[in-house]
């Protein structure tokens, strides 16, 4: 009985906090692009005596909530780090669980995402993913291709270094084929050869779980991004954490290497 009342009280408090945060946020100054390193699933599970896989499964729920909130708020792009080029080093069963979870997520969520006008996209060396994952991605891309709402960018088999390497290879090939000349090479051109071509750079990077590393994520694009770190593990990351991150972002002074005249 007591637990039931505490639960209800906490839920009401969460809603009150959310309303306060929503009122404090300036809708005209939302970050256009938010990037998230969804970290801490394994530790979340281990602390509960559960297998790591259940931490990843719980992480999907946080992903679902964050996508919905970004979509409601009108954020343009959300990039979530779901599997890095280094994650293949994990035990085979964890890797295959993650790949199955991806397929399950795409199949189960695509209709809901479609109804929210979410456009599903992915960045990374997708051609190296298991066949089933590639097929599920292609189906999700096809279905949501014309949506005009949030772009959900799933970083899969993604590495910032391999992205830059791929861009260099493509530029070198274009030079070789005489489609480009050396004088054409500048920052704008390099951006066009990244997986995120055509997207704004992230303005806000969120990393839960207490680690303060970039972990080979969006190395080029994060040049002037504001970082928001929290000890909360990804499966415990709630709507209010995202709202707090956005509010803190709006209170930062962004100078881009210059100075602000007062
Ligand atoms: C890092 O936590 C997380 C991952 C490598 C996977 C992220 C995947 C999800 C959140 C599932 C949803 C994504 C899909 C497939 C759509 P960790 O395992 O490194 O945690 P730890 O640092 O505590 O061990």
TrEMBL record:
Gene Ontology molecular function, alphabetical: ditrans,polycis-undecaprenyl-diphosphate synthase [(2E,6E)-farnesyl-diphosphate specific] activity; magnesium ion binding; manganese ion binding
Cofactor(s) this protein cannot do without: Mg(2+)
Enzyme class per UniProt: transferase
One Pfam family hit: Prenyltransf
Keywords: Magnesium, Metal-binding, Transferase
One GO BP annotation of this record: polyprenol biosynthetic process
Xref: PROSITE patterns: UPP_SYNTHASE (PS01066)
EC numbers: 2.5.1.-
Annotated binding of substrate, by residue: 40-44, 52, 56, 84-86, 88, 90, 207, 213-215
Family annotation (Gene3D superfamilies): Decaprenyl diphosphate synthase-like
Cofactor: binding comment: Binds 2 magnesium ions per subunit.
Residue numbers binding Mg(2+): 39, 226
Matching InterPro entries: UPP_synth-like, UPP_synth-like_CS, UPP_synth-like_sf
GO CC term, one of those recorded: cytosol
Entry annotation: catalytic residues: 39, 87
Subunit note: Homodimer.
NCBIfam families in UniProt: PRK14830.1, uppS
Its job: Catalyzes the condensation of isopentenyl diphosphate (IPP) with allylic pyrophosphates generating different type of terpenoids.
Family: Belongs to the UPP synthase family.
Record-given protein name: Isoprenyl transferase
Organism: Desulforamulus aeronauticus DSM 10349
């Amino acid at each position: 009985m007591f637990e039931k009342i505490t639960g209800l009280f906490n839920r009401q408090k969460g809603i009150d906090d959310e309303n306060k945060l929503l009122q404090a946020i300036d809708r005209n100054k939302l970050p256009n692009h938010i990037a998230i390193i969804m970290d801490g699933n394994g530790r979340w599970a281990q602390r509960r005596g559960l297998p790591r896989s259940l931490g990843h499964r719980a992480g999907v729920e946080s992903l679902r909530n964050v996508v919905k909130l970004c979509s409601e708020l009108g954020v343009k792009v959300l990039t979530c780090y779901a599997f890095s080029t280094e994650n293949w080093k994990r035990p085979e069963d964890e890797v295959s669980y993650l790949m199955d979870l991806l397929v399950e997520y795409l199949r189960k969520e695509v209709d809901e995402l479609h109804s929210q006008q979410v456009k599903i996209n992915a960045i990374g060396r997708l051609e190296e993913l298991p066949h089933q994952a590639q097929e599920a991605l292609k189906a999700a891309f096809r279905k949501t291709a014309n949506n005009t709402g949030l772009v959900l960018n799933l970083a899969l088999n993604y590495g910032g270094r391999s992205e830059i390497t791929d861009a260099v290879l493509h530029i070198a090939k274009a030079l070789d084929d005489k489609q480009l000349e050396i004088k054409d090479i500048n920052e704008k051109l390099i951006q066009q050869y990244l997986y995120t071509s055509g997207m704004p750079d992230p303005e806000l990077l969120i990393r839960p779980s207490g680690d303060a590393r970039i972990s080979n994520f969006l190395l080029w694009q994060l040049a002037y991004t504001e970082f928001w770190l929290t000890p909360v593990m990804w499966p415990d990351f709630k709507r209010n954490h995202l709202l707090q991150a956005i509010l803190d972002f709006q209170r930062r002074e962004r100078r881009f290497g210059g100075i602000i005249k007062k």
